[in-house]
Structures are given as C-alpha cells and as structure tokens.
Amino acid sequence: MDLLAYSNDSEVSGSNAPWRRDRLRDGALLTGQLEEKMSLLMRVAPNIVQAIRAFNVGDLQQEAGQLGHHFLYAHCANTLTKQQVCARIGEQFYFPKPCSKNFDALRKCLTETVHEAGPQPGFIVVLEQLPSAQKFDKEARENLLDVFRDAAEFWAEKKVPFRVFYSFATVPPTA
User: Fold this and answer.
1) Three-class secondary structure of residue 73 per DSSP
2) At the N or C end, where does the chain have fewer CB atoms within 10 A?
3) Where is 75: in which H helix or E strand?
4) What are the residues whose beta carbons fall under 8 Å from the beta carbon of 147, sequence distance 6 or more?
5) Cα–Cα dist 163/41, whole Å
6) How far, in Å, CA of 71 to CA of 165, rounded?
7) pLDDT(2) > 50
8) Statement: residue 42 has pLDDT above 90
9) What confidence category does residue 168 fall into, taking pLDDT thresholds of 50, 70 and 90?
10) Which family does the similarity line name (predicted)?
11) Looking at the predicted structure, is the pLDDT value of residue 164 above 90?
C-alpha cells in the first residue's frame, strides 16, 4: 500500500509521508545533478575525431583526470608546414623525435608504440590552432586528422576510448 502512496502526492498519507515525498524529490534532483556531472563526454562517442566547438580545453583536461585518461595537448599556432606541425605535436605529447618526422611515424607512435607500452585507460587529445597556411593546406589538415581517425579506430578495436578535439587557426582577412 505504501508503494501506491508514493506514486501520487495527493495519495500520500501517514506521519512520514511528507518526508518520504521530499526525499524522493531530492533524490531525483540529486540523480539528475550526478548524471550531469558524471561525464562532460557522456554524449560523445568514445572513439571520435571532432571539432572542439563548445568544449573548453580546461574542462576536457579536468575530465581526462576524472576519467583517469591520458590528456594529450598540442598548441599548433605558429606552425606553417607538415614537418612543423608533426614536430610540435610530438614535442608537446612528449613523443620520441622519430615519432615526429611525418604522418606515418606519428600514426605508428599513437597506435603501436603506445600500445606496446602496456594497458591504456583512455585518451583525450586536443589539437588546437591547426594552421591554415599555404604549405599546410586543407588536404594536409585532412591527412593529419586521418592519422588521428586511424588511431581512434585502432584504440576502438582495443576497447580503449580515444577522443580527439581540434580547432583551426583563424586566418585574418586579407585587405
């Protein structure tokens, strides 16, 4: 009979009924707050490469810490060529120099080399301010993002989250 009493506020009776009703409401609010705070990335696929859009780098770093994932960050402003971008990513990810020579070396380091190091909890990767320059054109940017897409697929097969967020450098308008 008590179970029916909880289903509709007008049917609640008894000395503990108001307390029970408030507790249910508080529990529902608390559950909603916990779900909201559970994960900033709960609606983001576990293995994806996407524009950073509404995400904040600081929030992503904090989320990586809460999830126990590696946070890899590369700020690529002031890079103009494929070699400079690879070098910057390798340097800021603390990869060995050979991993930074070209896209193939970077791909191998993001996948096989890291996998051989042992079990991995997951990754949140941020590539910020990817250049938009004559020597690093749209095709080069897509090739770089393909390296990270390949890595996301590799880690998906291993059931390890690998999320990549990127942004492009804004190009000032020419006069």
Assistant:
1) strand
2) C
3) strand 70-75
4) 103, 106, 107, 110
5) 9
6) 11
7) no
8) no
9) very high
10) Belongs to the barstar family.
11) yes
Q: Which two tokens stand for residue 143?
A: 């090739």
What are the domain boundaries of the chain?
2-38, 47-168
Nearest by Cα to 64 from 21, 122, 150, 138: 122
Long-range contacts of 61-69 (CB under 8 A, 24+ apart): 61/124, 61/126, 63/39, 63/124, 64/123, 64/124, 66/39, 67/39, 67/41, 67/121, 67/122, 67/124, 67/161, 68/121, 68/122, 69/121, 69/122, 69/123, 69/124, 69/161
Task: Check: pTM over 0.85? Answer yes or no.
Answer: no
- The amino acid sitting at 113 is T
How many Cβ atoms sit within 10 Å of the Cβ of residue 158? 12
Of 91, 79, 87, nearest in space to 134 by CA: 79
Output the furthest CA–CA distance in the chain (Å, rounded): 77
End-to-end Cα, the chain, rounded Å: 77
Fold of 47-168: Barnase; Chain D (3.30.370)
113 CB contacts (<8 Å, ≥6 apart)? Answer: 99
